[in-house]
Specification:
By secondary structure, the chain is α/β, with parallel strands linked by helices. Helix content is 40%, strand content 20%. The protein has 15 helices and 20 strands. The radius of gyration is 23 Å and the shape is globular.
Length: 463
């Protein structure tokens, strides 16, 4: 039976076994959905707000106590270097705190009724209620913080939630769900449901699901959205090929460390990682070489090693893919300024490419690996046009000391966020975070997710 299948979890650097989880069968998940649906259907079952706040506060305390354990688990199963894994734990703890702070904002308002004679003699107000059963499907690259972004808002708003982690990183998710239960959340309000792909699709498309939260590939996200039951709302977070525009006035000395961080953090396995860098023709190659010098100094290794700055890619086949794309660009005449080759079956050298063809995979698809591309432009409008030429649009950046150029970039770039003198991967967890076009649907960020997991109810009273 499916319930007897196990998923082996490995360290992605040396592929050593670090644990396993038992996959859930459809029969188990079907029972979980029924219970969750019944919890929401009867208001007397709802957890009072003060209880939800207490649970989340206790979860924060437990996470702080287990900070080092959580960070090591992120590095060990996800390949994120320890320095960055610690940052992720801090963000995850803060994210739960943001949920607590956002609860008072889930309030209704008075609706004026006597604006016309038709509404006279009435008063009206709205309240916000939990939307119902939430199903979350998550990605591997931030194995704790992404789960917090999908699950903690559901708990905060009073929605029962089922969460399927990425197959590569199920342990951090399991730990967070267990922490919620330890903090006092009844198990039926949050279920951990690792499962195979057919079972996951059956769960996501079930009519009992009120809200579907997805973080992962565009191909899978849009496919699942097309199969949702009528009435199921959703939020999809996919990827992009983030562009950076550099003008002649840019502060190169301060810019390079920012590009290194934005392009090679977690070995580029970030949906808004710096990928396409556009610079003036007379500056572009020098900028590429300076970036390459910095990138070449990055330490590649096992993420649990304190010295590691770039860890492995999540699977050996991803190394194969990145190598194929880089070799394709090289064969087409691209100059390799740094890296350009695999270091092992699980790691790829941090790479800087100069002037790859615009129709190469590295120029038109999300690399999701430690590769950044530098391109020349004659007029800055050319850079804007190239930046906007793909079916992806997420976050973008411009480096300039000119206010006019910054404002033009903000206007011209097709992105949901434009960073000025900062890399494309910048994010704080209370800001809106969303992809346009193929890059996603709806808006992430703690407060925005909590709003999506609730719905308005209006009362109209005839006096």
């Amino acid at each position: 039976m499916n319930s007897q299948k196990t998923l082996e979890v490995v360290n992605p650097f040396d592929l050593s076994s670090i644990g396993s989880v038992t996959l859930k069968s459809w029969e188990q998940i079907d029972a979980y959905l029924s219970t969750a649906n019944q919890l929401h259907a009867k208001r007397k079952n709802w957890l009072p707000t003060h209880q939800r706040i207490e649970i989340l506060n206790k979860a924060v305390a437990i996470m702080r106590e287990r900070f080092d354990e959580l960070a090591f688990q992120i590095a060990n199963e996800g390949g994120k270097p320890m320095l960055d894994a610690r940052v992720e734990v801090t963000r995850a703890i803060d994210g739960v705190g943001l949920c607590i702070n956002e609860i008072p904002n889930l309030a209704g308002k008075e609706i004026p009724m006597d604006l016309t004679a038709a509404g006279a003699g009435r008063m009206a107000f709205t309240t916000r209620e939990p939307i119902g059963v939430v199903v979350a499907v998550s990605a591997f690259n931030h194995p704790l913080n992404l789960i917090v972004h999908q699950v903690a808002p559901a708990v905060a708003t009073g929605c029962p939630v089922l969460v399927k982690p990425a197959d590569d990183t199920p342990l951090s998710c399991q730990t967070f769900v267990n922490i919620l239960h330890e903090a006092g959340l009844p198990e039926e309000w949050c279920r951990y449901v690792p499962c195979d792909i057919p079972t996951a699709e059956q769960m996501v498309t079930d009519p009992r699901v009120a809200f579907f939260s997805f973080i992962g590939s565009a191909k899978v996200g849009w496919m699942l959205r097309s199969k949702l039951a009528p009435g199921t709302r959703c939020a999809l977070e996919h990827g992009g090929a983030a562009p950076v525009i550099i003008d002649e006035s840019a502060d190169i000395e301060n810019m390079i460390p920012s590009l290194v961080k934005g392009g090679f953090y977690h070995s580029g396995q970030v949906c808004v990682s710096v990928q396409r860098i556009y610079a003036p023709r007379h500056m572009a190659e020098d900028i590429g070489n300076t970036l390459a010098q910095a990138v070449s100094k990055l330490v590649v290794g096992n993420a649990v090693d304190e010295l590691t700055e770039c860890g492995p890619l999540i699977r050996p086949r991803e190394v194969d893919r990145v190598a194929d794309w880089v070799n394709e660009a090289k064969d087409a005449g691209t100059t390799i300024l740094a890296g350009g080759e695999r270091m092992s079956n699980t790691t790829f050298a941090p790479t800087v490419l100069f002037q790859p063809p615009i129709d190469a995979n590295v120029s038109r698809k999300e690399i999701f690996g430690p590769v950044a591309c530098v391109y020349e432009y004659e007029h800055i409008q050319e850079a804007f046009n190239q930046a906007n030429s793909l079916p992806f649009a997420f976050q973008a950046a411009v480096f300039t000391q000119k206010l006019g150029t910054a404002m033009t970039a903000i206007s011209e770039l097709d992105a949901t966020a434009v960073m000025v003198n900062d890399h494309t991967a910048f994010r704080v967890d209370w800001m809106p975070f969303a992809g346009r076009k193929h890059s996603g649907y709806n808006t992430g960020g703690i407060g925005f997710t909590m709003h999506d997991m609730t719905q308005d109810k209006m009362a109209v009273i005839k006096l």
